[in-house]
Amino acid sequence: MSQPTAALAPRFISHAPGYWATAPTPHWDEWHWQQRNRVTTLAVLDQHLQLTSEERAGVLLAGSKLALAVTPHYFNLIERDNPDCPIRRQVIPRIEEAYDSPYDMADPCGEDSHMPVPGLVHRYPDRVLFLVTDRCASYCRYCTRSRVVSGVGEQELVTDFEEAFRYLEKNTGIRDVLLSGGDALLLSDSRLEAILKRLRGIPHLEFLRIGTRVPIFLPQRITPALCEMLRKYHPLWMSVHVNHPRELTTEVRDALGRLADSGIPLGNQSVLLKGINDNAEVMRDLIHKLLLCRVRPYYLYQCDLIRGSSHLRTSVAKGIEIIETLRGFTSGYAIPQYVIDAPGGGGKVPINPNYVLYHDTEKIVIRNYEGKIFEYPEPIALPVANHHSAELLSA
Ligand SMILES: *Cc1c(COP(=O)(O)O)cnc(C)c1O
Fold first, then answer.
1. Based on the structure, what is the number of domains in the chain?
2. 341 catalytic residue (yes or no)
3. CATH number of 188's domain
4. 184 lines ligand 1 (CB under 6 A)
5. What gap in Å lies between CA 181 and CA 145, rounded to an integer?
6. pLDDT tens-place string over residues 329-364
7. Active-site residue among 94, 123, 284, 313?
8. Closest of 111, 103, 107, 152 to residue 310, by C-alpha
9. Is residue 29 annotated as a catalytic residue, yes or no?
10. Parent domain of 225
C-alpha cells in the first residue's frame, strides 16, 4: 500500500517562552523562578488573557475554595483567544465552581475516614497513600483533594510524619507506599530524600512510588541532581498526570526522559474531563505521545464527585466508548484502565466495555474489537482413570 509522502508534522512543540515573555527571560529554565512567578492574581491574568465573565467571577471565588496558581511554563500553553482551550479549562477557575451538584462531596473518595494516622490513607490491604505536602506547582480545578490542598480550602492537611513512619514499621503487611499530596516533588531534594531514606529503612516496604504533576507543570524541577538522588531509592516508580496531548511539550518530554533514564518506570493517570479530553481522537493522540515519552498510560479516572466539578464531568458511557475505540485498534501498552474511584471510599473499580456475551460452566461467548463473535470452551473434567490410562502410567 503506498503511503502519502506529506512531511510528518512535529509531534512535540516547545512553548517556552511564548507570549508570556516576548523577550527571552534569562531565568525561565530555573524552577524556583517558575515557582516565584506563578500566575496567582486577577491582575496578572488580565495582563495576559482576555478573561470571560465566568472566569473573572471564578477567580474571585477561588481565594476561598482552591487557590489559583499556574506556572509560567504551563500558562504559556494556553491559547489566548480560546475560552474553551483544554489547558485553560484545567487551571483557570470558572464561576461554575460555585455550583455543587446534589452528589458533590468534599471528600469524594472517603479518604478522611481511612486515615489511621493523620496524612496516611490506608484503604487497600498492602499499600498506603502518604500525603507529604499540601502544595502543588499549579492547581487543577477538579482536584480530588481540594478540601486540603493549596492552603485556602476548608480543611488543613496535618501529616504526622513520625507517627506515619511508626505505623508503617508496625504494619508489616504494607509493601507499597505512594507519596502524594499536594505534590511530593515540590519538596526540596534533601527533604524528599529524608523521607525516601526513612521509608527504605523499613525492610517490608518493597515498592515506592511518587504521584506527581510536577514534570508537566514544572519540568524545570526535574534536574540532574534530583534524578541522581531518586535513583538511589529503587525500585521507585512514578505516576504522572497528563490529560491533553498539548501538555507534552519538548520540555516535558525531556524531563520525562531524564526520569526514565534514571531507571524510573513511568505511568500516567488521566482524568476524563468534559470538553478537554472526552474525545477519542484527543485521547488517542495523548496516549501515543505518552508512549513516545516512555510513559505507560496507567489509569483513566472518571472524574470524582468533588464539589464544584460538575461542569467538568462527562458520562461514564462516554468513557466506555472511548476505551472501546482504543482496545484492539492500537497498542495494548497505550490503553489505560478506566476506573471509578467508588464514592465514599470503595476504592478504584475497573470499568470495561462488555466483551462477554454469555458465560456458563461449559463455555464463554465473547466478541472481539471488530464485533466478531467467538466461543471458547471451559476445560472439561478429565474422564476418571480407566484401564487404558493405568497402562500408560505404568509404561
Ligand atoms: C489509588 C490509591 C492507591 C494506589 O492504587 P493502585 O491501584 O495500586 O495504583 C493506594 N491508596 C489509595 C488510598 C489510593 O487512592
1. 2
2. yes
3. 3.20.20.70
4. no
5. 8
6. 999 999 999 999 999 899 999 999 999 999 999 999
7. 123
8. 103
9. no
10. 1-353
